Amino acid sequence: MAESKRYISQEDLSKHNIRGDLWISIQGKIYDVSDWAKDHPGGELPLLSFSGRDVTDAFVAYHPGTAWQYLDKFFTGYYLQDYSVSEASKDYRKLVSEFSKMGLFEKKGHTAFFTLFSVAMLFAVSLYGILCSDSTLVHLGCGGLMGCMWIQSGWLGHDSGHYQIMSSPRFNRFAQILTGNCLAGISIAWWKKNHNAHHICCNSLDFDPDLQHIPFFVVSSKLFNSITSYFYERKLKFDSVARFLVSYQHWTFYPVMCLARINLFAQSIILLSSKRRVSNRGQEILGVLLYWIWYPFLVSCLPNWGERIMFVLASFAVTGIQHVQFCLNHFSSSVYVGPPTGTDWCEKQTMGTLDISCPSWMDWFHGGLQFQIEHHLFPRLPRRNLRKVSPFVKELCKKHNLPYNCVSFWMANVLTIGTLRTAALQARNFANPVPKNLVWEAINTHG
């Protein structure tokens, strides 16, 4: 007679949720990933966020079918008592299976090739304009082209971090280092760590780093309580300085976005110079160093400091469009405090994301972010297939009464500014308000 299965309750499973003692459930089977957490390609935070609960939908979303074979070595021998699956999750997993059978996770097309080609052309034209022209207007235009190049390289870095855009893992890694570290000065290791945490904990105020922009921005008054960031492992202090800056955030949003790259540079350098575990640290550092050689050298080729500053500001400002795009998909969506529960994967992903409606010929501009709901539900799906699966996702949301919010690019900006303005006005009325004067009153009479 076969040995009877051993079961543990959800309450017992939830006790294994700290570093060194991480248990998860996948399809009702209990796995001990305590030692594996430090080697997890997606970083430790996703496992910490989901530890002590069922993670089947997240595992299905982020891992190909070949990953299932590696689970057995982590199996504890226990099963989750009263394990059940919601109707929404059942249909979601069916879609993942059907998309896999259709080959949609493998059909990458020529998007990466055309994007790489456009990156090379933008870089070459910008380089030529600086070295071979004496025109100030040409130099200004080259700064804008450099910003466009960073935007397109950013889409490639994003795609290569989610799925293999090249013919082999080695070439895919090369594409990551080239488009992220070498061309943009941003560590792909930092980006993957940040972005994986964002996807897993979408719009959690204390777990999602993409909503943790104190002292500059706050999307919810809940952040006024100086909550602890589980990503940065520190308290997000909402002090008088933060309150003052947040009070004007709906006015400063676009100007700050024009300089947002500075923060990405800083975060990359902080990670690479820290004692934290970083895969291929040597490659990462070398790639960033190459950026800080070629870009300053290129700027130095301009004839005077006025044009140099103009070029840098133009390149940064144009790239600010992409930073705005990152915010539009989430700033005006629902937020919550605490880790994701694991059993409401579809609900959390759809509630925390916003789609941007646009014609297919504008897909290059959004880089796949226009289908943010589809991307969050199926992060391994190549960019070119997101429009194809959109009708299926709409049907899934309609059937299970899940939100599917889609607005125009203009309206997404309006909603984002509205969210920032609401929080700004709340910050002004917060306890112990910033001292006001006649100038303050005059500026803020109409919000």
UniProtKB/TrEMBL annotation:
Metal-binding listed as a keyword: yes
Top-level taxonomic group: Eukaryota
Gene Ontology, cellular component aspect: membrane
Coiled coil in keyword set: no
GO biological process: lipid metabolic process
Domain Cytochrome b5 heme-binding: 5-80
Any matching Pfam family: Cyt-b5
Location of the protein in the cell: Membrane
Associated pathway: Lipid metabolism
GO MF annotations in UniProt: metal ion binding; oxidoreductase activity, acting on paired donors, with oxidation of a pair of donors resulting in the reduction of molecular oxygen to two molecules of water
SMART domains in the record: Cyt-b5
Keywords, ordered alphabetically: Heme, Iron, Lipid metabolism, Membrane, Metal-binding, Oxidoreductase, Transmembrane, Transmembrane helix
Topological relation to the membrane, as annotated: Multi-pass membrane protein
Transmembrane segments: 111-131, 137-157, 252-273, 285-305
SUPFAM superfamilies associated with the record: Cytochrome b5-like heme/steroid binding domain
Family: Belongs to the fatty acid desaturase type 1 family.
PANTHER family membership: DELTA 8-(E)-SPHINGOLIPID DESATURASE, FATTY ACID DESATURASE 2
Name recorded for this polypeptide: Cytochrome b5 heme-binding domain-containing protein
Organism per entry: Carpinus fangiana
Lineage, highest ranks first: Eukaryota, Viridiplantae, Streptophyta, Embryophyta, Tracheophyta
